[in-house]
What we know:
Chain A is mainly beta.
Amino acid sequence: DGGITQSPKYLFRKEGQNVTLSCEQNLNHDAMYWYRQDPGQGLRLIYYSQIVNDFQKGDIAEGYSVSREKKESFPLTVTSAQKNPTAFYLCASSLQGRSGNTIYFGEGSWLTVV
Amino acid sequence: DQQVKQNSPSLSVQEGRISILNCDYTNSMFDYFLWYKKYPAEGPTFLISISSIKDKNEDGRFTVFLNKSAKHLSLHIVPSQPGDSAVYFCAASAGLTGGGNKLTFGTGTQLKVEL
């Protein structure tokens, strides 16, 4: 089945640790995105990538890093510099990275700092 | 600065009746609007979209209306069904300098369809 797979679904992190969230898509989409959702709020863009080996910061990139070495994969690292990392993280992709292309989402990953 | 606003955090409707979810935006550069449905602990599911060159788009029970002069869009669900109970997000996009696509989301409206 075509889709976007995020792993792990649930992740616990100790303060001061870096963690990496995986995102893989088999939709042959060029563009990929990472969003974050906090309770009672909308989704906010962390990073996005239009093509392999290229990515741009979104609205809340501080404390996060990404890579795009393969078209299918766009992992997100939550670093110890992220002050409030506990949130629901959503990976998404679209056919092309321009307005008018529908963005499709994965099932999300819960990150909790303990 | 909230560029996309959903001022009703919740809405309750009886089964079979019409559900109307509203969304306002401030950025006149937005040229594409989407509605997503979301269940707790799941990713948003795309429902329907509309380009800024149109004022209406219909797909089955779902219709989206766009009023550009008022910077307002709405999602109509007719007839409402219990399975429609979820959080609905309005989102808008504008082309970015150098390319790219960035969705700006509202804060969502929790729809509850009662029997």
